[in-house]
Each structure stands twice: as C-alpha cells, then as structure tokens.
Amino acid sequence: MVKVLEGVIVSLKMQKTAVVKTTQVTSHPIYKKLIKKDTKVKADTSSFDLAVGDRVRIGETRPLSKLKHFKILEVLKK
Known about the structure:
The chain is mostly beta strands and about 80 residues long. The protein is built from no helices and five strands.
C-alpha cells in the first residue's frame, strides 16, 4: 500500500528536492483533544515548476537517496 499525503512546500534550496510539510490531526487517547502534528518530508520534484507555498500531493516510492522516499505526484494550488 502506497502512502499518499498532501502538504505545503517549505523549501526548494536543494537540487531536484523539495521539503514538504504535512499536517496530521489526531485525537489524544485520554483527553480527546485534537492535536496537530507537523512532519517535514523530502520529496523528488522531477519535472514540476514549483514555488515555496505551493500545495502538493506526494506519494511514497522506493528510496531515492538516504532521506528521500517520496515523489511529487501533482500540484494542487499555486
């Protein structure tokens, strides 16, 4: 099963790599309060024209490098 996540591009300073921040909302097991968890993921940009702040959909792939395990599938908003 392949993970598909949505997030916002935070950085484009590396070649062919973007840092994407994904937000996950979960409920606390005891207090039932909603908690936001942010995760930064490195993703391959392949041939997209991207800018910081773009909303993108990323999918899990085989390891492309030491830290890069995701690839940008599509740009949702510019």
